[in-house]
From TrEMBL:
One of its GO terms (cellular component) is cytosol. GO terms for molecular function: carboxy-lyase activity; hydrolase activity. It holds the Pfam family Amidohydro_2. Belongs to the metallo-dependent hydrolases superfamily. One of its GO terms (biological process) is secondary metabolic process. The lineage of its organism: Eukaryota, Fungi, Dikarya, Basidiomycota, Agaricomycotina. Residues 19-281 form the Amidohydrolase-related domain. InterPro entries: ACMSD, Amidohydro-rel, Metal_Hydrolase. Keywords: Decarboxylase, Lyase. PANTHER family: 2-AMINO-3-CARBOXYLMUCONATE-6-SEMIALDEHYDE DECARBOXYLASE (PTHR21240), AMIDOHYDROLASE FAMILY PROTEIN (AFU_ORTHOLOGUE AFUA_7G05840) (PTHR21240:SF31). This is Amidohydrolase-related domain-containing protein. It comes from Agrocybe chaxingu.
Amino acid sequence: MDANGIDFMVLSCAQPCIQGIADPKAAAAMSITVNNQLAASISNNTERFGAFASLAMQNATAAALELKRTVEELGFLGALVNDYQQSGSDGLTPLYYDQQEYDVFWQMVSDLNVPIYFHPRVDIAPTLDFQYAHAPFLKGPAQEFAATLSTHILGLCVNGVFDRFPNLKIIVGHMGERIPSDLVRIDTQLLRQLELGMPMKQNVTTYFRKNIYETTSGNFATDLLNFHIGEIGLDRIMYSIDYPFVGIPDGTVWIDSLNATLNEEDLNSLKRGLAIKVLRLNDKMLKLRCRQYYAEGDNSLLMEDVLDNVLL
């Protein structure tokens, strides 16, 4: 991290993690174990590391309660879900979080004011066989990941999740899984679905400008970045690497090259400013400093003194 100029890194469980465990009891138990272990692993250096919770999504209420525990008790910054949740006795039933039975979960997310990061996962076997038997080279990040996850994100849009929860914050990696590259066609074609009962009240472009953030993870394309800035705004885009799937030095070379493309203020927003805002890192650091000061018995410090030490 130091060699590549990285001050802070958010850690999470690699795909498919809990989303690959179909049994709800086993998934719930493993999510607690993973979250506790992750919290313990960063407990001695929370000024450099944060965490996203792993959640079992078979039961929306249970997922909401585990999210609440990890945020309020463990200090996590939100959660990361690896696309859909496997379920059923054979593990072949996918659960998508754009259905109204997940409203209790999204209400908790909104109440906690934390983001949920949507990350791709390897598809279940029947989907892989049906979609990619003819061209198995397209499995994974070249096509499968973006095709599957973008459908889930668009499902959140068309099924009215952002209308029911207007303050919801979702993060999507890999430059938005291609969605912002095709917003004109998506918005235009979805207009035809209104007369068929589609509950979405706005359009996908609006949700990307109000509710959805994208990161640059694993997609270090300057021309694409500039196009997306024009489509959704730089204030919706955060720098990310996708380590360990992508090398940290690769990201460093690219982000440093943007000095010739972005001004200092915009580059700072991409590198750190927006992430600090979305993840509420200044709030997190303030709480850490307060705990440290009180633990050291120095209760005379003014809040302003604490703030001077934690603003990033």
